Amino acid sequence: MIAIKTKQLRKEFGTKTAVDDLTLQVEPGEVFGFLGPNGAGKTTSIKMLLNLVTPTSGSGLLLNQPLGDNNIRAKIGYLPEHFRFHTWLKAWEFLDFHGKMFRMEKSQRQDVIPKLLDLVGLKESTHAKLGTFSKGMTQRIGLAQALMNDPKLVFLDEPTSGLDPLGRKLVRDIIDGLRNEGTAVFLNSHLLSEIEQTCDRVAFIRSGVVLETNSMATLNQERLRVLLRVAAPSTELATDLASLGDFITADADTPFDHDTGQIIFHVDCEENIGTVARHLVEHGHNIYELKPQRITLEERFLEVIQGDKG
Amino acid sequence: MQIWNIASLTIHEGIRRNIVRLAIGMGILFLIVFGVGIHYIFLQFEDANFLPPGEMEIPAIALTIVGLYVINFLLILVSVLISVASISSEIDTHVIDTIVTKPVSRWEIVLGKWLGFAIMITVYATFMAGGLITISALRTGYRLDTIVPGIALMALNGILVMTISIAGGTRLSTLANGVVAFMLYGIAFIGTWVENIGSVFENEAAINIGILSSLIVPAEAVWRKASLSFESRILGNPQFAGPITVFSEPSDMMIWYAIFYVAALLAWSLWSFSQRDL
Description:
Strand order of the largest sheet of chain A: 6-7-8-3-9-10
Shape of chain B: globular
Radius of gyration of chain A: 24 Å
Number of strands of chain A: 15
Distance between the termini of chain B: 24 Å
Number of domains of chain A: 2
Largest sheet of chain B: none
Helix content of chain B: over 70%
CATH architecture of the largest domain in chain A: 3-Layer(aba) Sandwich
Largest sheet of chain A: 6 strands, mixed
CATH superfamily of the largest domain in chain A: P-loop containing nucleotide triphosphate hydrolases
Number of helices of chain B: 11
Structural class of chain B: mainly alpha
Largest interface: A-B, 32 and 22 residues
Oligomer: heterodimer
Order of helices and strands of chain A: EEEHEEEHHHEHEHEEHEHEEEHEH
Number of helices of chain A: 10
Radius of gyration of chain B: 20 Å
């Protein structure tokens, strides 16, 4: 079974193209990060997947069923970016209503609701009206309603935007729990550190087009940057290192930084740092510093989105 | 089942947000004012032999039908006000997002809301009109020709304008929807009076304008049928000159047209909401 599969999904609003080509696949039990700048088409993409907006063209499957299939939604949870709910309902009533909408039996709802309220840290507010909730509490109860049905696929659109660090940790733990249970999570967040900590794979989207999809493991492998300081640094030395083999490339922007005296290059894995070190020693260079440095997801995001993948 | 879940949520919202409580409270106040007023008016008539005993029914009819006329008007206002924001504001605030993504068809959501409002309107029409008719009967001894068909038609009137409001809510913003719903009722209202006066002077153009306005919104035509079912003597009777006078009785087909109007508009609402992007 495939959690999500889309092919050339496209959405136009009049003359404006919000999503040009959404082609991606998400596997069961996978936490999939969806990254892009403001206006890239992330929310429209999620809305197409959830049938909130109708695609202009293209096709897609959710849990092996075509987009818009009514019954499959019983296995899907959704926390929207603009989480607003019926403020006059009490927390228990709110979850009970959404449980009914998921077609859950009364006994099932009564069993699940206390557990979920406990899970999202709102046990004490069981009988409080949502209108009295803070933004963070509203987001937590919204997360609870998305999990009411023991979903196989969950869409979380900016799930930590209103949460404090404790709340973010809670969401991370919940996502980990979902992954362990085999639930796929489609996560849209501006907080790249959250994505970095929770996602198995990420897609970068710009102007409604998926530019790149990669696993975090691959990105981590790709992203090994090395800072080198030697006694007599030069551009020539940087060029010489870059010619050692396919495993090493000079930094595209600053192979040799005159200000800091640093030579910057990239290797495909940590083992090859030793190869570089041996080469330098064999050629009589005094090494002051040879420091591997992980490129953050934010740097990678900027590279991809700005069209400068390096 | 999902339709009933939405309908009960709609009724629950009316109760929880004090709409029902306030409507009943204000309705009781209205009935008290009516009851006290009619009591003192009849006290004067009875003490001073103001009217011959045979004509005591005339003010009783006038006051009762005027009271029902006001209730009909209030019912229309309340029906628009409670439903005007129901769909449009939930779209604007995205409250609807977590509902439409559940295993429920969009048409079930609209139909559920419509059903919830229709139940509230019917109960309120029965409470208000029934209360007023009871008070009038107890104080004056006057009995209407029939009660149930008239109240049913008043409820139909409320449901009719509520359906306009629901239909508008699937496409328009809350404010724009309110303006359209009230203006449509205004067209029906003025059209009816043009027709009423036109029929007195046998002015065919004025009568046709009235008929056309009733086709656009049959609310006032339904009210005329309701008032005539309550009391047939108000038809063309100059003794009841004023807002309650009916100079031109709409045909029975107009009631069927109103029912068809509600059904067609509701069907369009279900389709409209199912088609739109959220």
